[in-house]
Structures are given as C-alpha cells and as structure tokens.
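Is this the right way to post structure tokens for a design question? Let me know if I should format differently. Anyway, here goes:
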C-alpha cells in the first residue's frame, strides 16, 4: 500500500510540474493557445484557458472537431478550426493580440 501512495505522489508531483510549465508558458507567450489535448493531455485545455484568463491573457482555442464545443465560460473566445493554414494562424494570433 505504501508503494501505491509513493507512485501516486510521484504522478501528482509530475502533474503539478507540468501545470507550472504550462502556466509559465502562458505568461511568457502572453497568450493561451489551447488545442485538443493541451500539454500532451496532462493539463486539460479548459485549465490552460483558465490560467491564461486569470492572468489577463487572450485565449485562442484550436480544434479539429467538426462541431467544437467550448466550455460556456469561454464561449466568446477565438476558435481556430484544425487543420489550418499558417495564414489562418497568423490572422488568429493578430486578432487575439488586439
């Protein structure tokens, strides 16, 4: 049972570390870009978006789903449909920066 606890603690520390990396990336980038499976799935996309929002950063969602469903709290966020061209990404980034 102690081994299970140690493994869980290791996983928890790893997830906290990944969340911290995402948080620092959002701060450094000045923008929260959220895709399907943000941070390799370790940090849910809506959590990345909340980190960005809480820090006053714009949010850009990118989704390959045909009918993307954004959480209600982000209904006004920018959405870029995947796959996208470089020009579309550039336009979305410029729009987010305004």
């Amino acid at each position: 049972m102690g081994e299970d606890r140690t493994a869980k603690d290791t996983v928890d520390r790893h997830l906290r570390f990944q969340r911290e990396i995402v948080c620092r990336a959002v701060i450094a980038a000045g923008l929260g870009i959220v895709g399907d499976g943000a941070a390799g799935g370790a940090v849910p996309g809506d959590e990345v978006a909340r980190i960005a929002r809480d820090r006053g950063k714009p949010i850009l969602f990118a989704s390959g789903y045909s009918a993307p469903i954004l959480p209600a709290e982000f209904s006004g966020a920018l959405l870029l449909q995947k796959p996208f061209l470089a020009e579309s990404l550039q336009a979305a980034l410029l729009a987010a920066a305004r």
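Format looks fine. Someone answered above. Worth noting: The chain is about 50% helix and 15% strand. Residues 2-29 form the longest helix (28 residues).
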